[in-house]
Amino acid sequence: MKMKSLIAGGILAAMASTAALPAFAQDSVYVPLFSYRTGPFAGSGIPIANGMSDYLTMLNERDGGINGVRINIEECETGYDTQKGVECYEQVKAKNPLVISPYSTGITLQVIPKAGVDKIPVLSMAYGLSAAAVGDVFPWVFNPPATYWDGASAIVADIARREGGLESLKGKKIGYIYLDAGYGKEPIPLLEDFAKAYGFDLTLYPVPGKEMQNQSSQWLNVRRDRPDYMIMWGWGAMNPTAVKEAIKIRFPMDKFYGVWWSGGNDDAGAGGEDAKGYRTMNFHGVGSDYPVIADIKKYVVDAGKSQVDPAKFADNLYNRGVYNSMLIAEGIRRAQELTGKKVIDATDMRAGLENLNIDEARLKDMGMEGFAGTLKLSCSDHSGHHQVYVVEWDGKDWQKSGEWFSPMTDVVRPMLETAAEEYKAANSPWPERTEPCLSN
Amino acid sequence: MFYREAGQFKTSYEADQQVFPILQDRIGVAIILGVAIFIVPFVANDFFLSAIAIPFLILALATIGLNVLTGYAGQLSLGTGGFMGVGAYACYKLTTLFPDVSIVVHILLSGFAAAAVGMVFGLPSLRIKGLYLAVTTLAAQFFLEWCFIRIPWLYNYNASGAIEVPGRQILGTMVTGASAGSVPRYFTVLAIVILLTVLVKNLLRGRIGRQWMMIRDMDIAAELMGVRPLYAKLSAFAVSSYLCGVAGAMFVFFYLGAAEPSAFSITLSFQILFMAILGGLGSLVGCFFGAAFIWALPIILRAGPPMIGIPIAAETAFHITSMIIGALIVTFLILEPHGLARLWQIGKEKLRVWPFPYA
Questions:
Q1: Alpha helices (H) along A357-403
Q2: Where would you find the membrane-spanning parts of this chain (chain B) (predicted)?
Q3: Which residues have a Cβ under 8 Å from the Cβ of B115 and sit 6 or more positions away?
Q4: Which pTM value belongs to this model?
Q5: Which among B45, B179, B260 is the nearest to A94, CB-wise?
Q6: CATH for A28-147+286-389+415-426, among 3.40.30.10, 3.40.1080.10, 3.40.50.2300, 3.40.630.10?
Q7: ipTM of the assembly?
Q8: Distance to chain B for A393, nearest Cα, Å
Q9: CB–CB contact A75 B263 (8 Å)
Q10: Which residues of A touch B306 (CB under 8 A)?
C-alpha cells in the first residue's frame, strides 16, 4: 500500500515536472513587473502595480501592443522584501525580460551589479541609487525623470523660495524623517552637504521598518526640537502614520514636505481635512482629466481587465504607475526605431532607454499633454534631472501648487559624479562601460 | 527486503563505529552526494541553482547550527538571525580589510566572530532555562540588529547602509559578486556545507555531543555525572553560532549579493526555528528536510503553476502558497510531532520489514 502510493506519487511528480513549457507568441516582448500587493507596503504598492499593468494592457488592447508587438506582462510579487525581489529577478531572468522595474530601492541596489553582467536594463523610475544617473559608470541603470538627490534639492529649493533665497536658510532647523532602509538613507549625504553649505541645522529622525506604524517617539522628539520644516522619505504604512502624528503634535502641515513617494492619496487622506497643506513633490499629472487616463478607463477598467478599485482609479500613485509604464513603452518604441527591428531584446532596450526623447508632440500623441513634462536622456545622463512641481493636499485630493521648477542640478550633478566614482571604487573591480553610445 | 542489514557483520571497531553502519545507507548517501556534485550543477538551470539550491544548502547549515543548540543541547534560541548577521558583517569587514586572502578562509573565520558573540549571549543560559532563555536570546537578536543599523563602521560607512559583496575569485574563477556564475557559487557552498556537516556529525557522536544531549535530557543528572554545564552550554552556543555565522556569511556572499540589516531580522530567526522544528529537533537529516520544506516548497509552488501553463495572478499565488504551507505545517505537526526526520525514520522501518510486515 505504502509502496504503491509512493510510486504513484513519484510518477505524478515526474509528469508534472516534464510538462512542456508554453511557447510565447511570436510577436511579443516580455516585460516583468515587480509588484507588491501584499505586506506592510501594499498600501503604496497596489495603486502603483495597477497603474503600471493597466497602461501596458491599454496599449495591448487599443493598439495591439507597440507597433504590432504585444507586451507580455507578468507581475512578480516581492512584498517589498529584498530577498523575494532577488528571487523574482532570478525567476524572470530566464525568460529574457526587456527591462526590470524593481519598485524598491533595496531590490534596485541588489540588482544594479547583476544588471551589467546579465545585460538586462534596470529602470528605477525616480528611486534607487541616485548615482546611477551617471550613465558612463552605470550603463544598464536608468532613473528618470529625477533622482532622490534631485528630489531633496528641489525640496530645499522650494523651502528657500518661501524663505526668500538660499541665504535665508542659515540658522533654520530642518528635520528629516525617513524609513530606516536603503530608500530613506539615500538622500542623507546630499542633505548633510546642503546643511553645511547653506548653514541650516539638519536633524535626522529614523523610523525603523518594523515600527513604522508607531512613530510617537520620533514625533515627540520633533515636538521638542521644533524644526521649522520637516522633510519625509516614507513609504507604505509609514506615510499615513507620519501624517497623523504630525497633526497630533500640531506641526504646521504646510511646512511638512514629502518626497514623491509620500504622496499617495491614502497617505494624506489618513489625516483628512486636518492634513490640509501637506505637500509632496510630483512629476506627473494628478486626477483623471487626461486623454490617456480616459483611454485606460475605456479599454481596461470598463472592460474588466484591471484589478483597480474604481474609487481609487487615477489617484496619485496610480498615475505614477502609468507614468512608469509610459517610460517602458517609450523605451521599447525608441529601441524599435533605432534598430529597425520589431521584436527587440534587452540590449536594444538599453539603447532605447538611453536615447529616450519625449517631446511635447510625442506627449500630445500619447494623450499625456500636461500629464508629464518632456524627457530626454543621454549616454552620460540616465536621469535627466527633470523638472518637478509641488502638489498640496486640499483635504480631499492633491492640487497642483506652484509651477514646474528644476532641481538644483548644477550642484547635484557633480555630487552624483563623485558618488558614482565612490561606488565604483567600493565595488571594484567595477566593469568599464563598453556599450556603444548611439547618437540621438 | 531492500533495506535490511542481515548478513552485514562488523569485524572491527572501526566498522562498528562508522557514521553509516548499514551498507544501504552508505549507498544512499553516495548517490545523494553524486547527484548533488555531478548531476545537479550540470542539469539544473540558473534559477534552480541560484534561487533554490544555494539558499537551501545555506539555510540547511543555519538550521544545523540552531539544531545543535536547541535540538541537541536543549537551549531554545531566537537569535539565529542575529548570529547569521554577525557572520555576514564579519566576513564583509574581513574581506574589505584583507582583499587578498581567499574568500573561503574569510567565511570560515567569520564564523568565529559569531561564535564569540554567541558565547556572550549564551552566558544567561547558565542561570535560566526554556522560554526565559528564549527571551534573552531575543534580546540578542534585537541588539545585534540595532548594531547593524547604527554602527556605520560595520558597513564601511556606505550611504545606503547596506553591505555590497565585492567580486572575489577562487582558483581564477569568480565565486562572489555579480559576475560569478551560479555553478561556481553552488560548488563553493556545497563544499562548505558538506565539510561542516561531516564535522558536526562527528562532534555529535563524540564526547562533546553526548554532553550536550545529557544537559538537554536532564541537566542535574548530567552535572552529577561530571558534565560541567558551563563548558557544555557555552560550547553548544559557540558551535551553534559558528555554524550560523558561516551560514549568514554565505547567505550574503553567495546568495543575496548585498544585504540590508533587515535581511537578518527576527523573521529569519523564526524561519530557521520552524525549519528545525518541522525537520525534527535533534536530527541532522531533518535540518535538510526542514530547510527544503520551508524554503524550497513555497518557491516551487509559486513558480510551478505558471510554468505548466496555469495562469494565476502573482499575489494570488502568494496568498495560496502561504495557505498551503500553513496547512501543511499544521498537518505534519499533527501527524508527526517529531518532524519530517521521524517520518523518514518510520519510512525506513517500514521498508526494512516490507513486504512481510510481521516478520
A1: 360-365
A2: 27-44, 50-69, 76-95, 101-123, 130-151, 186-204, 234-256, 268-301, 313-335
A3: B237, B238, B239, B241, B242, B245
A4: 0.85
A5: B45
A6: 3.40.50.2300
A7: 0.79
A8: 30
A9: no
A10: 74
